[in-house]
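Blinded run. Sample ID left blank on purpose so nobody reads anything into the name before looking at the predicted structure. Input follows.
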Amino acid sequence: MVSFQQVAIRVQKEKEFEELRSAIDRALNRERVEKFLKQVRKSGARIRDLEVILARGVFEKVDDTLAKLGAQKLYQALTVSDQAQMREFYLSKVEEVEPGLRTKFQQLYRYY
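Blinded prediction complete.
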């Protein structure tokens, strides 16, 4: 019996990818995650809709470093496969938010 092994896709634009990945990490760390969630709520976006969050400048409001670089600009500089990997990374980080905060911001986590 052969088991499935996912092949790692190589990141093409490593610098931009790493800058954006680091910013997402900073925005979703324990100290800033509540501020991030409040900004997402204020923007009217859903938590799982990364493109809308980027377009509305939510990350820039939470992270000073990213405010200088521009999250959407970094994201758009990525290749399609890099963008897909970034979305997957972001979604995994969003799901790691502690249950208490997820309950508090449950309207952001709803699928409808």
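Unblinding after everyone has recorded impressions. The CA atoms of residues 38 and 105 lie 8 Å apart.
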